[in-house]
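Sat 14:20. Reprocessing the chain from the morning session after the first attempt stalled halfway. Input below, unchanged.
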Amino acid sequence: MAAKLKKGDKVIVLAGKDKGKTGSISSVDPKSGKAIVDGINIAIRATRQSQTEQGGRIPKAMPIDLSNLAYVDANGKATRVGFKMEGDKKVRFAKTTGDVIDA
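Finished this time. Tokens:
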């Protein structure tokens, strides 16, 4: 199935401890159906010091399920994403406004 949410999309969290927060997707794992969103679902990870990195308690963005994310449209509201054909090209569009997301 085609990816409705992609890297770089601005999304809002629908459920969980960060409900209502917005952020940009930094990576998507389609196999597990999860995405990493900047500044969302932060966990503290203890890491050992190495020659290149400082050790200690480092905040890290953890994956969040794609079903708990919604695309943010031009109005700043959460919307579902659909697909339609424009000419011979398949494009994503916001279902609330009908605007094409990626032309």
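The chain is about 0% helix and 45% strand.
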